[in-house]
Amino acid sequence: MKAPRKINISLLTIVTSVGIIISLLLHIYWYSQELPYSVELYSQKSYGGDSFEILREMDGDGYCELIDIGYAPNTNTEMTSILVRSELQKTINQMNIFHPIVVGDAVYFFDFNEDGFEEIFILSQEKDSLFLDGFDFFNNHKYFDNVKIMVKPDSALTESWDIMPSIAKIDGPADDRYMIFSITTGFAIYPRGVYKYSFNKLNIIQKFETAAPIVFKNVNIYDLDNDGKEEILYSSTSHENSLNLNYIPI
Length: 250
Prior knowledge:
This protein has one helix spanning 11-32; strands at residues 50-56, 65-71, 80-85, 91-97, 107-110, 119-126, 129-136, 141-151, 163-171, 178-185, 193-198, 203-209, 214-222, 231-236, 244-249. It is mainly beta. The protein has a domain at 37-210. A 4-stranded antiparallel sheet has the order 1-2-3-4, with no helix packed on it. Strands 5-6-7-8 form a 4-stranded antiparallel sheet, with no helix packed on it. A 4-stranded antiparallel sheet has the order 9-10-11-12, with no helix packed on it.
């Protein structure tokens, strides 16, 4: 009967193994101690249409999700896709709308149902109408699906309503949510201004329209006089004229 074979483990093997384990533990510790930064990054890419990316911390774990939004106007459906991925590039969910998203400021993040996860709200425009969509990507639920919130006015004589919508704020108690958004137009006539939309009534409940176009991405909301009511500040402009500062209570 043969004697059992002896297993020789060299000192170098032991040291190497311990070093790998220590390195792995240090990496895990460092990864868990990262600060929960949340940034938004918009970048233009060519996917046959308009597209941009947003980095946003949506689920409270301290790490940003990557939101890819792409619009392909040359397809038969003219579909806009919204793909949400984790920090490890794992797909969380994807939803589609069938209208173009003009710019990134038509996208807004808000914890609508107060469950600790942010939902995505999007304004999109198609020919003569402005639409609202609201998605819960983590629970695969649509709060608002292709809801028409505004139509082209009769004063706009062009077939297509050339506008740039921007969501300034979504707020309010659970039983009285509202959205403040603005519309910037080029050479089209009314409307151009700031609007307050009620999610419960599914209607615009307040508006302030002006002949001078609002400077895009320039709507700010503050309580200037500390009376508990916020004011809306924005800049407007016209050809051969300077900026004009306006504010209205909401």
